[in-house]
Fold these 3 entries.
Entry 1:
Amino acid sequence: MNDALKIVLVGTRHPGNIGSAARAMKTMGLSRLALVAPECFPDPHAYALAAGANDVLDVAEVHATLEDALAECRFVIGTTARRRTVTMPELPPRDAARQLVDAQARGGVALVFGRERTGLENHELQLCHASVCIPANPDYSSLNIAAAVQVLCYEIRMATLSTNANADMDAATIAASIDPDDLPATQAEMEAFFQHFSALLDDIDFHKGRPPDMISQRLRRLFQRAQPDPRELRILRGIFSDTQRLLKKS
Ligand code: SAH
């Protein structure tokens, strides 16, 4: 079973969907489920639909926010049933699965699913490095969430099987042997960096009364694409701190 790859369900309304998602995961060899603010969990309906995947539900993590659920992850893909206004790389399912499986050698990775009715909010998608959309019927493209989990976990399974055929060490073992300063920063480190950057931009009055959203989104994209390591973030934050210190003196 693969526990380096986390499946995250955000704001799921029906506990039966959580159970069906757990079953879908287990059939594809995945065991790590995280729930963000589920409406009803734990719940007998979740267990009823999990069938033999109770063990996945028993150890499911529950978090208040998506930021908390992703804190230790270093690579994250979000799922969408439709095109969004958020500008980010959009991957077909097979490529998304390949990237997730490859990224496991550099630490924790996650695939994020949205609410049954409204999907992921834009600010939640912005926490992701890329998005994936199952190319369904354009006139009826929204799958049931557990069905979407099944399709994408199947692709992850295929990518994993083709990797394991050639690999002599599994990805999680490789990741554990690398100095964390040589890995891409975690989501928690990236979020602390973005907050510091945004405070600096306020301190120098960069936005001059204009709404900061577009600039913040573009800067996010830039740094997510670069996938800086913790050392690089410390250098940048050192520059921000020195600038802030000088501003206070003047
Ligand atoms: N109106 C919502 C639909 C939500 S469907 C939206 O546009 O996002 C619930 C969840 O199932 C989605 O957030 C996504 O995680 C998953 N899902 C459904 N259809 C999908 C598709 N075609 N591709 C990728 N994920 C899909």
Entry 2:
Amino acid sequence: MNNFEIDNSGLYPLYVGMDDTDSVSGMCTTYICSVILDRLKDCGFKVDGPPRLIRLNPFAPHKTRGNGAVSFKLVLKSKKEIEKAKKLILRMVQELAVMEDPKTNPGLVFYEGNMQGETKSELHDYALKTIRTIIKKEETEKLAERLGIEFFGFKKGRGIIGAMAAIGCPLDDATYELLAYRDPANYGKKRKVDPESVRVMNRQTYPDTFDNLDDGYMAITPHTPCPVLYGIRGETTGAVLEAQKMVKVSEPIERSQVFLTNQHTDQHLQVAENISQMEKLQCYIVKGMVNDFPVVIEGGHVIFTLNDGSGSVECAAYEPTKDFRNVVRQLAPGDRLLVYGGIGRKGTLNMEKIELITLAPVYEYVNPLCECGRRMKSAGAAKGYKCPRCGNKIRSDSKEKVEIERKLRTGFYEVPPSARRHLSKPLVRGI
Ligand code: ATP
């Protein structure tokens, strides 16, 4: 590997990845990235393209919230400039990361040169593995050493796992998220974003932007004490920037940053050959048949079993999925489904969306009809039936099997924006 490879323009590319800088009680890796980028620009360093926000396996054990890592690319004039930029970034990560939180274990990686050929494809594979499975830090370190990627781990240094995935992730499909950050004086306080302006913005920009509203309510503001005031998700930089102009706020915005991201691309999903092949802490698209009528369990979660020839898996629509549960509740044994979702620690598949492929007939058993057209009533135990209108009697106790009309229709159904995983592709973006 040539570590000081020059690109066609005579500039030196430097890829920077970082992760695990924040804590549940505050801060955010995207914010630290934005602060660092602004400082780099102020110092005259050239940033190439938008920074990237890469969401990793939603079941990774040490995630704080949405398991996001970030990366960006600098194009620099000399080796000396590279060293200066690296020094600045290293210092700023150490200053800004929430080092005092025992669960924060920052990681920073630098890759110098053009990312191409074998290196590019190995990093692609590594990133997809980090998005779809669980990775050991040692595996990351070995690959980094082999590919000549410089890495810095602070404390336990776990962040290098995500940092390296962030520089390597392929983005064949991608979306954008504009993040507006608050004045630090307002952290933890109620966010002052005008809900009506968000509705107007949504009317004018949807579906170029999406997930702005949930059941008519504003969905762009987080509920954590983090630096983010709001996030607008969309198909292009232009769309999210236009949308921002329409959102009215009555508190200062310290800075904004548009990230290119794998959010809402379904990049976490693997097509499962069959149910028995699926593993915990991974996400799949799997085909199967509903085994039993769904049941509502304590907490309002709806559960049923999906099976195929190879095995079965418990599927859940949890309480936060709101109206999606009404769809799931109406499923019946024999319905054929394609389920999109992830398998948690306990082995339950948490559904993100479903395609209802075929509906099975559902029957109920009712008293027989009399010749006069009226439904008969039981004449008593083992005494057959009697018509309440004409008095006609029959001896048989057997009931009539009647097919029930299914209200559900075949097609796709998804969870609402508030329950959607960052990586999950909304139906409005296509299948
Ligand atoms: P935020 O979204 O607020 O930035 P987070 O949810 O991204 O926080 P982190 O604080 O970044 O959480 O912690 C996640 C940790 O898990 C990081 O150290 C990251 O390197 C690591 N990690 C991410 N994906 C995997 C994976 N697939 N296997 C093992 N570790 C992972």
Entry 3:
Amino acid sequence: MRQAGIYGLGSYTKGRQVSNKAFEETLDTSDEWIRSRTGIEQRVFADDEVNTSDMSYHAAKEALAHADMSADELDLIIVSSVTGDYKFPSVSSLIQERLGAKNAAAMDIGAACAGFVYGVVTASQFIQTGTYDKVLVVGAEKLSKILDFNDRNTAVLFGDGAGAAIVGPVSANRGIQSFELGANGAGAEHIKADPLIQMNGREVFKFAVRQMGDTCMNLVEKANLTKDDVDFLVPHQANIRIMEAARERLQLPKEKMAATVHKYGNTSAASIPIALVEELKNGKIKDGDLVVMVGFGAGLVWGGIALYWGR
Ligand code: COA
């Protein structure tokens, strides 16, 4: 079996930067409450005319350029989103046309905030078996479309954005070493959109703290490694306290964890690839590093990947 890895990354984080203070005008909340409970200082809301497919397209273009590839080399496009432009057609079909990826199949998947991890794992199966050579995986959300701006429990937590990655074959000592995907539908009522987001924050928090840590430990064990081998952690950016709990389970120092939640809030499926782009640019992720990505979300679902970075 071939090794599958990630190369070529891109993101889209443009829009209106909205501070916590802005919510004080309309909700019984405060900058202090939001910061101390979540680590969020601001979020970005995409411009009105920018939809999920637009953000996906721009992130994908950047990922293709970063991988030095043309769109017609793609065999498959997977977009993970809970805020697609339409019920159908899929976001992946829309960007297939716009990118000119004429040889690519296209599908959207829904695994909420764990969606990027689900997408990369799905892509990796095609790569490992040799069925496909290059898969574009996008996590993109315009959550501002489904936020209830009258609900302080949810309105302050989320933001918009997109991230994209090319998944393809890598050398034997790089790429995915282990993964875990999981679901517990018994917790489905704790966070849903019908049509606006509703959430039982405390229940989601308890689940997330336990599951993020457990998944991190399972990933290193499945890869026949130990937590001391982990070089960098990229957790889903929902709440700094949940992220810190995962970091503490791995006993990693602060500087070895990606943290962008203060700038973007929770961008659901986009949060992990956006964080990867930023930490790669900051030089925090280096060739050969053992990187652990881990996410959780509505479903309830979770997913993680341990991989050696690089080609
Ligand atoms: N401003 C002020 N008060 C707020 C608030 C806000 N924006 N949002 C909620 N509260 C209030 C609640 O109404 C509740 O009040 P009550 O006790 O009178 O009912 C209280 O704060 C809840 O406090 P507490 O339980 O101590 O908050 P918390 O420490 O659990 O933090 C969350 C709340 C939502 C930040 C936290 O539970 C969380 O992050 N959960 C996970 C959410 C998540 O990650 N969702 C995305 C999944 S991908």
